[in-house]
Amino acid sequence: MTETSFSLDIVESCIQTGPGSCSLEWVLEDEDNNDPECYLIGTSYLVRLYESPETLIVQAFNSNGTVDYVEDITEDIEDEYVIFGGEQTQNLSKIMHSGFSSVLIGNAYGVNGSILPSITFTIQKGTKQIMASVPCYAIIKVSYVSQYSSYKFSGSSEGKLLLVALATCESNNNEIIKDTIDIDIWETCENADEDRCLDIEIRIDTSSDEGSNYDNQGNKLIKVWGATISQISYAATLGSVTFLGSADEIVEEDISGCGAEEFNASNRVYSIVSQSVISGNLNTFVAEDGELRMITGGDPVGGIPKGYGTLHIKYVTRYLKFLIESSRDGKGVFIVDDNTYEECGITCQEYELGEDIGGEKLYDITVIYKDFVTGAPIGEARVWVDGNYIGQTNADGEIEVKQISAGKKHLIKASKPGYLNTDSDSLTNDSFIIPE
C-alpha cells in the first residue's frame, strides 16, 4: 500500500492588502431581540455590524429613527465546515477577526480528480473569503473568532428605517466601502400582517400608435403600472428586454358608477388634473394607490343616492416601458419580480412575437353596442377587447377596434350601469372572429 504525503498550510494574514481586505456587513438577528414578531415604533433593538475599516461612520440615513453604538462583541466560531466544490474561493458564515485554525477532512483533490500532495489556503482578517492556492475539491473544518459592533436602533414613525455604514479603507488606496440595511418599523404588529407587496399590472400595448408600430415589426411594447424600476427585476423568456424609461400620460375620459366604490378609470391614476360631474350625485374624487376614491358624505338629491352618476375626469397615469425584441417568432412570458419584500412574488404576461409577420393581415373594425330588446344603440358603454380596455361607445353605440387579426377568437366585453355586462348575460356576445 502506497501512502501519499500531504502538506496543508493555513495562513492568517493580519495585514490588510488587496481588494476585499476592508469590509462592512449589517446583520439583524432576531435572537438578539428575543425573536420579535415585528419591529415597533419607540422600542430599542440591536443590530450587528461586522467591520474591518480604519475609519467608520454609522448613521440612520433618513429621519425615521436613530442608531447608536453599544459595544463590541466577540464570538467564538467552532467546527464550521467549508466545502470547496471545484472552486478556488469559498466563504465563511461570518467575518473572521482572529484565531483562525483548520483541519482538512480526508484528501484534497484537483479539478482533474487527482489527489493534491500540497495545497495552501489563505484568509485575510476582516473578510469571509478563503482562497485556495488552486481550484480544488476539499472539506475543511474551521474554527475562528468573529467580532462585531453592536448598535441600538429605534424607529420614530411607521415606515422604512435605513441604516448606513460608510468607511474609507486607507490601506487599500482609500477605497470607499459601504453597507446598508433597511428595517420595517410598525406601529403595531397587526400592520405587519398586511399585504405589503406592490400591486403590479402588466399590459401589452398595441392600441397606441407607438405600440402598434412596434407590434408591426414583430416586437412588443410592454407597460408596467404600480412600481418604480428600483423596486423590481424583470426578464423575458423569448427575446431581449430593453427598459425604455418611465412615462407620464394624460388620460381624459367619462366614467360612470353605480355606487361610490364602482368608479374605475381605464388606467392607474397617478394624479388628478381636473374633474367635473356630468350627471348624478357625486362628490369630489381623490387618487389613492392608483384607484379613484370619492370623498364620503352627503344626502340623496332628487332621489339619487350619493355616489351614482357620470364623471368627466382628466388624470395622469404613470408607467414603465419595456421593449421585447427577438430574431425568431414564438410565444414568451414577460416576468416582473417584486423585490420590495421577500414574500412578494412574480407577476407575468404572455406575449407572442412575429404574429403579424409573414403576410398576416390586421383589420380595423367597428363594434356597435345595442339594446337586445329595442335595438337602440347604447352610448357611453365601456368596452374591453382581449382583456384590454379600449374606451367608450359614442352616441350611436359605436367604437372602433384597431389592428385585429383574422381567423382568431377575440374576447369582447361591454358594460354600462343599468345593463348586464356582456359577460354576465345569457347572450352569445362574449367573443368574435374575423373571417380570413
Descriptive notes:
The chain is mainly β and 436 residues long. It has 3 domains: 7-191, no CATH class; 201-344, no CATH class; 362-433, Immunoglobulin-like, CATH 2.60.40. The protein is 3% helix and 55% strand. The strands form 8 sheets. Strands 2, 4, 6, 8 and 11 form a 5-stranded antiparallel β-sheet that branches. Strands 14, 15, 17, 18 and 21 form a 5-stranded antiparallel β-sheet that branches. Strands 1-9-10-7 form a 4-stranded mixed β-sheet, with no helix packed on it. Strand 19 and strand 20 form a beta hairpin. The protein starts with 6 loop residues before the first strand and ends with a strand.
Strand and helix layout:
Blueprint: E1 7-13, E2 24-27, E3 39-40, E4 45-51, E5 55-60, E6 65-85, E7 89-91, E8 98-110, E9 118-124, E10 129-132, E11 136-155, E12 159-169, E13 175-186, H1 189-192, E14 201-205, H2 209-216, E15 220-225, E16 232-236, E17 240-258, E18 271-281, E19 285-288, E20 291-294, E21 308-325, E22 330-338, E23 346-353, E24 362-368, E25 382-385, E26 388-392, E27 398-405, E28 409-415, E29 431-433
Parallel strand pairs: 1-9, 3-13
Antiparallel strand pairs: 2-4, 4-11, 5-12, 6-11, 7-10, 8-11, 9-10, 12-13, 14-15, 15-21, 16-22, 17-21, 18-21, 19-20, 22-23, 24-27, 25-26, 25-28, 28-29
